[in-house]
Design brief:
Length: 424
């Protein structure tokens, strides 16, 4: 049996977050610069993180229930079938769980060779949406129609960017601290994807891509000055994108003065806040909410509002707890991953889940203007649910190969193993 990976305990390595993620890096001859399709050195893969898997399955099941509760009225009026959206979401959920299970069985290292093909494919799909092949809905061309199936490339772009960033950051190692090699190329690639999202337009997905990029660069050890400067520049460009696009600026003003626009541009967020307020502590009861009569498209981006009305503060707190478990177990997988590639993927996907859930809940509570982001695993929609399930499957596969942290042996009294001296 080969020795376990050695921990890097030098003061320099302890100083950065990146060294924490590298605490279990393999010391055998397989380097990240080479294809990672080799078998794990410790034999067969283990079992998945059951807590993480249970959290995902629970969220998917909860989403099916809440989509039905939030959409029954609209489905009856629009399609004369109260279970119209329920049937679709149940089918999406079944497909998503199957894909998650299949993905969790595929060694995540095989993604190493697929990084650039996947990134290019996603870029082409985003471009197709922009140049006129996109299917319009809600004033944006965000979907591509493949027969009866509608694909949303922006959801794929989030996962593709995480995988590419993990590939590049792990491969460049200490060069991440440089501007020309470690920082600028990552910002450029993320910027191209963001511009394509903005052209659809999809401002919310562009914001998520930006946050994912800066978070992973920070974890990898990029210089704080570069990240801070790029963040300021990104904030200025984002403010300009709002100010000089009439519909965005009007929506922003309506959000600032919601009481004056509750019958027009701020109608949806105003009704959403009403839903949370009417739910109280324990809610009105599942299926007894009244805001489904007034809140447009309640089963999509604002499904959290129906959770607040029907299950109250307790239900929203439990939902937030489930996302917290998802993020914490994902970060745990990152810290125990056998290589930097797996560590960065796990951390990036965990960030993706957490950021999307946080932004969606903030929008539903009118803390932020409307962004058009779904609540992961809960909101109605096939593209979002399937891609989040694939991401969860990748995360679960990383947990199969995790190397548990081993506590250091206690030193004998009076003996310092590091200095080699014996104290009397």
């Amino acid at each position: 049996m080969r020795d376990r990976p050695a921990f890097d305990s030098s003061p320099a390595s302890r100083a950065g977050v990146r060294s924490t993620l590298r605490n279990v890096r393999r010391t055998v001859g397989i380097q990240l610069a080479a294809p990672l399709d080799a078998r794990p050195r410790d034999g067969a893969a283990g079992s998945v993180d059951r807590v993480l898997a249970a959290a995902v399955v629970a969220l998917v099941g909860f989403g099916v229930v809440m989509v039905y509760s939030a959409s029954a009225v609209q489905a009856t009026l629009q399609y004369h079938d109260p279970q119209f959206f329920l049937k679709r979401q149940a089918a999406y959920a079944g497909a998503a769980l199957v894909l998650m299970w299949m993905t969790s069985r595929v060694d995540y290292r095989r993604l190493y060779k697929l990084t650039y093909p996947v990134l290019v494919l996603v870029g082409v799909l985003l471009l197709l949406c922009v140049i006129g092949f996109g299917h319009s809905g809600g004033g944006a061309a965000r979907w591509l129609s493949i027969g009866p199936i509608h694909v949303q490339p922006a959801e794929m772009a989030k996962v593709a960017l995480v995988i590419w960033l993990a590939y590049s950051l792990a491969k460049k190692a200490e060069q991440v601290k440089t501007f020309a090699i470690g920082f600028l190329p990552h910002v450029i690639v993320a910027g191209v994807l963001m511009v394509l999202c903005m052209k659809q337009p999809d401002f919310g997905s562009a914001v998520v891509l930006l946050l994912l990029t800066f978070t992973m660069l920070f974890v990898a050890g990029a210089k704080i000055g570069y990240i801070l400067g790029a963040s300021i520049l990104g904030g200025i460009l984002g403010a300009a994108a709002i100010r000089f696009r009439e519909y965005r600026y009007e929506r922003y003003l309506a959000w600032l003065h919601m009481d004056q626009h509750r019958q027009d541009l701020a109608y949806q967020p105003f009704q959403s806040v009403m839903s949370f307020g009417s739910g109280g502590t324990t809610g009105l009861g599942l299926g007894r909410g009244l805001q489904t009569l007034y809140l447009p498209e309640a089963h999509t981006d604002f499904v959290a509002a129906i959770v607040g009305e029907e299950l109250g503060f307790v239900g929203v707190a439990v939902l937030c707890g489930a996302y917290l478990v998802l993020v914490v177990r994902g970060v745990r997988a990152a810290l125990r991953a056998p290589d930097d590639f797996g560590a960065f993927i796990a951390f990036g996907l965990s960030t993706m889940f957490g950021v999307q859930a946080l932004v969606n809940l903030a929008v539903a509570l009118a803390i932020l203007p409307t962004k058009g982001l779904t609540l992961p695993f809960v909101s109605f929609g096939g593209s979002s649910l399937v891609m989040n399930a694939v991401a969860a499957g990748i995360l679960l596969n990383i947990t199969r190969h995790e190397v548990p942290s081993v506590p250091r042996r206690p030193e004998p009294a009076g003996v310092s193993l590091e200095s080699g001296h014996v104290s009397l």
